[in-house]
Amino acid sequence: MSMRGEIISEEYKKMVWVHDKNGKEYACYARDLKGSLRSREDLTEEEKANCLDLSTVAGDSW
Fold first, then answer.
1. Which pLDDT tens digit goes with each residue over 6-41?
2. Structure pTM?
3. Which of 4, 32, 54, 58 is placed for a possible disulfide with 50 were both Cys, Cβ 3.0 to 4.6 Å?
4. What is the distance between the alpha carbons of residues 1 and 9, in angstroms, rounded to a whole number?
């Protein structure tokens, strides 16, 4: 694996995926979530600001 691949792999390992009740998926760094992993509705506004709504990247039909 190239150095670039190793860096990406290490960052990927630091992430968690949170699903909301509507089936949307969000990618967050675990360090940005203050408590235990919860549903999207339970995230604070600060936590939401640090997560990425994957439908904005892959589209709604992904």
1. 888 898 899 988 876 667 788 899 888 876 555 556
2. 0.65
3. 32
4. 10
- Which SS3 state, helix, strand or coil, does residue 59 take? coil
Output phi, psi for 37, to 5 deg.
Answer: -70, 130
Beta bridge partners of 27: 17, 52
**Where in the chain are the domains?**
3-58
Task: Kindly indicate the confidence band of residue 59, based on its pLDDT and cuts at 50, 70 and 90.
Answer: low
Calpha distance 40→47 (Å, rounded): 9
Task: Supply φ then ψ for residue 59, to 5 degrees.
Answer: 90, 160
**Beta carbons within 10 angstroms of residue 33's beta carbon:** 18
Compare 60 and 16 and report the one with higher pLDDT: 16
Tell me which amino acid residue 58 is: A
